[in-house]
Specification:
The protein is of the alpha+beta class. It folds into two domains: 151 residues, Phosphorylase Kinase, domain 1, CATH 3.30.200.20; 103 residues, Transferase(Phosphotransferase), domain 1. It has a five-stranded antiparallel beta sheet with strand order 1-2-3-5-4. The chain has a two-stranded antiparallel sheet with strand order 6-7. Strands 8-11 form a two-stranded antiparallel sheet. The chain is globular. 33% of the residues are buried.
Length: 260
């Protein structure tokens, strides 16, 4: 009972746009006390001005809409919160081991989530600076990343997988496909990264442009498994667009991406 009251006190301190029972229930289900403290610190610094509704929830992370004030500007952001208590990261090791940016040999297992959060932020920053269509990263702290909100009027842009056969009604599929491949090329050649989990499930569509999301597992191109991951990414994209009548030779696509 004491823990619940303490949890409620932290929840009350946050600037939440709607504090009805439904919203409180969602926050209580997906946030633990440590994460509430992190959000409160970001809120007390003025970075998070007000938390809004849920964008997505999952086994590993939850994403919320928020109003942000940072470096003298106010804008909409997505607040991605990795679960500490119940996060499922069985395959995390394969994406961190072999990444020369991180040395986790002496790191306690429970702190791996914080490395993963930093990894996604740094991947986003590299990609954004290379001109790849990704949410602009704002800041991160412990298990929370704040990034540009991709959407309009507090409504997130649709995920490509949700559009499925309707995609050809909102964009020209071939142009959209070429734009995705061009972004993957920039990601590889300019940011020197491979997404490593690219598919229709982590590409958003806004103003006829693709935005690549979920880059926690992305690896540098000198990672031991980078070639395998790139091959898998391209196969996923070709498989999806084959349903829309678009066919490409996988080798020629990969050669274009890598510049070979």
């Amino acid at each position: 009972m004491k823990k619940i009251r303490q949890f409620d006190r932290y929840l009350d301190k946050l600037r939440i746009k709607r504090k009805d029972s439904e919203v409180r229930k969602i926050y209580a289900e997906v946030l633990d006390e440590r994460t509430l403290k992190v959000l409160y610190k970001l809120s007390s610094k003025g970075i998070i001005k007000a938390l809004g509704g849920v964008i997505s929830t999952g086994k590993e992370a939850n994403v919320f809409y928020a109003d942000c004030a940072y470096e003298g500007k106010e804008f909409a952001v997505a607040v991605k919160i990795y679960r500490i208590e119940t996060g499922e990261f069985r395959k995390m090791d394969e994406y961190i081991f072999g990444d020369k940016r991180f040395d986790i040999r002496k790191l306690p297992r429970k702190d791996l989530i914080y490395v993963w959060t930093e990894k996604e932020f740094r991947n986003l920053l590299r990609a954004y600076n290379a001109g790849v269509n990704v949410p602009k990263p704002v800041t991160y702290f412990r298990n929370v990343i704040i990034m540009e909100f991709i959407g309009e009027d507090e409504l997130p842009a649709p995920i490509v997988s949700d559009l499925a056969s309707e995609l050809n009604e909102v964009v020209e599929p071939e142009d959209f496909f070429e734009s995705i491949i061009e972004n993957v090329r920039l990601l590889y050649q300019k940011a020197e990264l491979v997404h490593a989990d690219l598919s229709e499930y982590n590409i958003m569509l806004l103003n006829e442009k693709p935005y690549i999301i979920d880059m926690g597992q992305s690896v540098l191109i000198d990672h031991p498994n980078a070639t395998m991951y790139l091959d898998r990414d391209v196969k996923n994209i070709l498989r999806f667009f084959s349903r829309l009548g678009i066919s490409r030779d996988i080798k020629s696509v990969i050669d274009y991406i890598t510049g070979d």
